[in-house]
Amino acid sequence: MANSKRTLFLKRRLRVRNKLRKVNAGRMRLSVHRSNKNISVQLIDDVAGKTVASASSMEKDLGVVGQNNIAAATKVGAVIAERAKKAGVEEAYFDRGGFLFHGKVKALADAAREGGLKI
């Protein structure tokens, strides 16, 4: 049976997440999801099973609704870094999911680093 794109994506996402669980030393997880139209990110506390902070390009106050480009990802990365600081989080593991670390995903990570979040 041939693997579909979706099946390969899910395998890749589980592989990345399992590696993070092995090396996780109680730090939060910065989980990214990218769709064709938007990009969103969550800061997740896996011990408590709760989302501490989140940001998305769908938020109207960011002014990037419907823009799926590097500029929108950069803005979302800066916002999540700011919200993480408010929540008292300074370090996190970057969970890219099944997405490759380039383009929008990389721009979001770089913006979060510039905002003061240690990834």
Automatic annotation (TrEMBL):
GO cellular component, one term: cytosolic large ribosomal subunit
Short name of any one Pfam family annotated for the protein: Ribosomal_L18p
Record's keyword terms, sorted: Ribonucleoprotein, Ribosomal protein, RNA-binding, rRNA-binding
InterPro entries per the UniProt record, alphabetical: Ribosomal_L18 (IPR057268), Ribosomal_uL18_bac-type (IPR004389), Ribosomal_uL18_bac/plant/anim (IPR005484)
Gene that encodes the chain: rplR
Gene Ontology BP annotations: translation
Single Gene Ontology MF annotation: 5S rRNA binding
Family matches, as Gene3D superfamilies: 3.30.420.100
Protein's name in the database: Large ribosomal subunit protein uL18
RNA-binding in keyword set: yes
UniProt-listed NCBIfam families: L18_bact
Its job: This is one of the proteins that bind and probably mediate the attachment of the 5S RNA into the large ribosomal subunit, where it forms part of the central protuberance.
Family membership noted in the UniProt record: Belongs to the universal ribosomal protein uL18 family.
Membrane-crossing segments per the record: none
Subunit structure of this chain's protein: Part of the 50S ribosomal subunit; part of the 5S rRNA/L5/L18/L25 subcomplex. Contacts the 5S and 23S rRNAs.
Domain of life: Bacteria
